[in-house]
Design goal:
39% helix, 4-stranded antiparallel beta sheet, binds zinc ion, single chain, alpha/beta, Rossmann fold
Length: 283
């Protein structure tokens, strides 16, 4: 059962975890082992508060990264899926645009940033996006790619969007209704260090990569995605959710099982548990 949670990247509920604790602690357990279990949390650096073991890091190897890039291009970009969202011409021009402009430090989901980082309304939403891009470019010296929709340029010609195009590469798609694959492609083309900014979860795409690449895909996403906190824009700065350096998935070592569980506070499928069951073998 735990292997299945690991493979599917799902989390047991607190009820199940309580049963698991009894199971681990049962007298005369398998091969006479004794286990110590605790409900615990994980420190910022990925160390278990109960047993002080380090959890599996999010890093993936260069080979895994290359394989991920290859599969994303084959299955998500060139596969049938995206053609329902765009035209071959637009896809072609996007791929050329990115291949010429990459590598980027950061790829930005323009509409998502404009609508989630601030309660601003109307064209002021685009000031929010412009401010973020200006901050990344001027204060951090980052090369940015902003993905947007064509209507952003129509309504606001000569405004913040116009100013933004002087600071960063911008691609405004005409037909795309879902630009996740574009963002993933541009990020992967920019190398293992590139990041992307969006609050969206792009989880569905993991079903398109081969089974043995799903863990690598998830780890890559968790370590590369910067999620702005809702309405956090203040004085041109956006606050991002902290990236946890460890993988939130059921894991085991010789000495311990670590099982992230849903304590009832997880609202959305992309929420990650904060509470863990630590089961450490005493001898
Ligand atoms: Zn532990």
């Amino acid at each position: 059962m735990l292997e299945r949670h690991r493979h599917e990247r799902t989390y047991p509920s607190l009820d199940v975890v309580e049963v698991l604790q009894l199971y681990f602690r049962r007298p005369y357990g398998s091969e006479g082992e004794t286990w110590h279990t605790r409900l615990t949390s994980i420190r910022r650096d990925g160390t278990c508060d109960a047993c002080e073991q380090k959890l599996e890091p999010l890093e993936i190897s260069q080979e895994q990264f290359e394989e991920l890039r290859r599969q994303l291009l084959e299955k998500v970009i060139k596969g049938t899926d995206i053609y329902r969202q765009t035209t071959p011409d637009e896809l072609e021009s996007f791929l050329n645009f990115v291949n010429e402009g990459a590598p980027y430090n950061i790829i930005i989901d323009g509409l998502n940033v404009a609508y989630t980082c601030s309660k601003a309304a109307g064209y002021m939403r685009y000031k929010v996006l412009y401010d973020l891009v200006a901050h990344l470019v001027h204060d951090h010296g980052l090369k940015c790619l902003v993905l947007g929709r064509h209507h952003m340029t129509n309504k606001h010609r000569g405004s913040y969007i116009q100013k933004m195009t002087a600071l960063a590469d911008c691609f405004f798609a005409q037909n795309v209704s879902e630009d996740d694959p574009f963002m993933l492609y541009a990020t992967l083309q920019s190398g293992p260090e590139a990041r992307y900014i969006t609050n969206d979860l792009l989880r569905d795409h993991k079903y398109l990569v081969d089974d043995d690449m799903k863990v690598a895909f998830e780890r890559w996403q968790q370590s590369r995605q910067l999620k702005p906190k809702l309405n956090s824009m203040s004085k041109g700065r956006v606050a991002f959710q902290a990236i946890r350096p460890y993988d939130t998935v059921v894991q085991r070592t010789e000495q311990a099982w670590h099982i992230p569980y849903d304590d009832g506070t997880l609202q959305y499928s992309y929420d990650l548990p904060k509470r863990w069951l630590c089961a450490a073998r005493l001898y």
